[in-house]
Amino acid sequence: MRIVRVANFVMPRSGGLRTALRHLGAGYRAAGHDPVLIIPGPDFSDEDTDQGRVITLPGPLVPRMGGYRLLLDRARLSSTLKSLRPDRLEVSDRTTLRWLGRWAKRHDVPSMMVSHESLAGLLRLFGPAPARRVGDMLNARSAADHDQIVCTTAWAAAEFERLATTNLTRVPLGVDLERFTPTNHNPELRSRWSAQDDVLLLHCGRLSPEKKPRRSLEALHHLRKAGVPAVLLVAGTGPLRATLQSEAADRTLPVRFLGHITNQQELASLLATVDAAIAPGPIETFGLAALETLASGTPVVVSSESALPEVIGPPGPAGLAAPGEGPAYAEALLQLLSLPEPTRRAAARSRAEHFPWQASVDGFLQAHKAATPKPSQNTPRKISAP
């Protein structure tokens, strides 16, 4: 079965969506299906990868978004889809690619929209008054246009459930339990960034307004004010990086901005070495970075406004949820760090083991009604650049 997946807002080198797409595609392929992924990029390309075929169509950069591109040429995307003759269509974008559900209906292709982001949460960034009304209208249309809506958490599903959506399925994402493991703990890496007795904290994620990275700086400020010798590492980049660097310098906060970490082993070692991590984004629908941190044996403090409390599980040594801004995060971090290190690291790893990628792949294939693979009758054809 040929499962064609289309996604916008995919970072060129990293990001939760890119990670999810790669693991799901590899899982589809291992199950005997023919996955094809279409994403935007600076130029056209068509290559075979471990997640199946990946086609990149030219798409413009989104201003002030730090590298995101969009598939805006509907005619070219439609032509590409027609040539691929998909058996199933999987859409990973709640906004700019909503029209693909209608395209799929016109071409008798079963379609599925994956809720990787909260539409209601994104709309709240522009003001709370119209958010619910506009969100409900768009979500109702998406549910009507697609055969299946897949949400990764109950939090993400809530905005569809209140509309009594009948074609809704919940499937959690997963984590690579072999790559992200407590055995990656590296004392030498720790000594590079902090003194022996320092508390080493990590903010791992995109530095953009919706992720609320300033909350991590505020948490550090309140910990230092309480006499805790904490140091914050920031792994990631984004449009707020320069502003955050200036703020940290002005407040003499010990923050080390590491930028984007391209080496996956270095990232895995970092996640396993820090004492705790902060995931303050209030509209996260799942939080792969937080789950990778748990798998590495490191507890996480998350936003109580997001879906991450579901991921970290009941409040305890694996993680805590904090409301509001920095002071609550500092208090939660103090609670976690007061526990014995072996206890909190074992609890974090144990929680992550509830989320293997194979379970996610099986759930997505079931949503596609593709659990039993059948050889595709389509003849593969290379897409050529015009």
From TrEMBL:
Pfam families, per the entry: Glyco_trans_4_4 (PF13579), Glycos_transf_1 (PF00534)
Biased composition (Polar residues): 374-386
GO molecular function per UniProt: glycosyltransferase activity
Source organism superkingdom: Bacteria
InterPro entries: Glyco_trans_1 (IPR001296), Glyco_trans_4-like_N (IPR028098), Glycosyltransferase_grp1 (IPR050194)
Signal peptide from the UniProt entry: none
Keyword Transferase set for record: yes
Keyword terms of this UniProt record: Glycosyltransferase, Transferase
Domain Glycosyltransferase subfamily 4-like N-terminal, residue spans: 15-172
Domain Glycosyl transferase family: 195-350
GO annotation terms (biological process): carbohydrate derivative biosynthetic process
Region entry Disordered, spans: 366-386
Protein name according to UniProt: Alpha-1,6-mannosyltransferase
Species of provenance: Paractinoplanes atraurantiacus
